[in-house]
From TrEMBL:
Keywords: ATP-binding, Nucleotide-binding. This is ABC transporter ATP-binding protein. It holds the Pfam family ABC_tran. Signal peptide: none annotated. One of its GO terms (molecular function) is ATP binding. The keyword ATP-binding applies. Gene3D superfamilies: P-loop containing nucleotide triphosphate hydrolases (3.40.50.300). It comes from Aliibacillus thermotolerans.
């Protein structure tokens, strides 16, 4: 559905996005995570056709997105910094969306009023930050977009509203095969919502995987042996992403298949052996450590 090939974007002399290649399947929810300044917003703005890439190409549904007004009418972007016309009411903003987005549905707009309990006659700039976020979701979801691009969209929303919005997104993905790309620093939320994840650092995608594959591929292990040679053998035999020693207990982040890791460790008859699932937040920290981001003594 979305095809990004070798995309680079530079501001003055600073490279914000560097040779990024990624594919997003129709009907999937793709989570874009990364360090501050990694280039997520810049990449999302190129996907939404707001910025023109300096190099590379972006196709949505087989068509280039930049300066493609027809395609942009199917793609809705919620920016991290919301923008509404000055002084407008929700219904005036809805009229604008109705005129621009051909799939706009008055019926959906009315149905969603049950989810977003706001009077359409209210002026948007007088609403709270979270209420303004609600308005942006209300209007965007009424456009029935085929691609929905979201940059830190849940900021300022209360937990009940977050859940309601997640459910609406799931519903549109399931019923209309909508494709969602969402960037967030809230990795728990990304873990809950997304089926695929791209991790960015310093303008590049350093890891791109199906979330289930990623989770079955990396493990947290606690170990203790009666002999140091056994410990050394394990460290040599396994693919270690991160290592920490606490007294006699060794804490490891290990890459590979669960069964193979378990067999390798059990063969050395450990005194202590525990294998724990890794959260996306922990994976993020260790992947970042692997590309030189300062990661020391932060195992939970
Ligand atoms: N309009 C701009 N003009 C100049 N530099 C910019 C502009 N937008 C982004 N940059 C630079 O590009 C780099 C990537 O910024 P971007 O906002 O894309 O990162 P991000 O991953 O979204 O960061 P964060 O997680 O902190 O929001 C940064 O170094 C930033 O200073």
């Amino acid at each position: 559905m979305i095809h990004v090939k070798g995309v680079t974007k530079t501001f003055d002399k600073e490279i914000a996005v560097q040779e990024v290649t990624m594919d997003v399947k129709q009907g999937s929810i793709y989570g874009l995570v990364g360090s501050n300044g990694a280039g997520k917003t810049t990449l999302l703005k190129m996907l939404a056709g707001i910025y023109r890439p300096d190099q590379g190409e972006i196709f949505i549904g087989g068509e280039p997105i930049f300066e493609n007004v027809a395609m942009k009418r199917n793609v809705v972007f919620i920016s991290d910094a919301l923008y509404f016309f000055p002084q407008v009411t929700i219904e005036q903003m809805a009229s604008y969306y109705r005129s621009f987005y051909p799939n706009w549905s008055d019926e959906r707009f009315e149905t969603l009023q049950r989810v977003f309990p706001l009077e359409p006659s209210r002026k948007i700039h007088r609403l709270s930050k979270g209420m303004q976020r609600q308005v942006s979701f209300w209007l965007s979801l009424s456009c029935l977009p085929s691609v929905f691009i979201l940059d830190e969209p849940m900021d300022g929303l209360d937990p009940v509203m977050r859940q309601k919005i997640k459910n609406l997104l799931f519903q549109d993905v399931a019923e209309r095969n909508m494709t969602v790309i969402i960037s967030s620093h809230n990795l728990r939320e990304i873990e809950d919502m997304c089926d695929h994840i791209g991790m960015m650092h310093e303008g590049k995608i350093i890891l791109e995987k199906d979330i289930d594959v990623l989770k079955s591929d990396t493990h947290k292990v606690q170990l203790a042996f009666d002999e140091e040679q056994k410990e050394e053998k394990i460290l040599n035999d396994l693919t270690i992403v991160h290592k920490e020693k606490r007294g006699s207990v060794l804490l490891l982040i290990v890459r590979g298949e669960k069964d193979v890791i378990e067999r390798t460790i059990r063969a050395e008859k450990p005194l202590v052996f525990d294998m724990l699932p890794l959260t996306l937040e922990e994976m993020f920290i260790y992947e970042m450590g692997g590309v030189g981001y300062e990661v020391e003594q932060i195992l939970y």
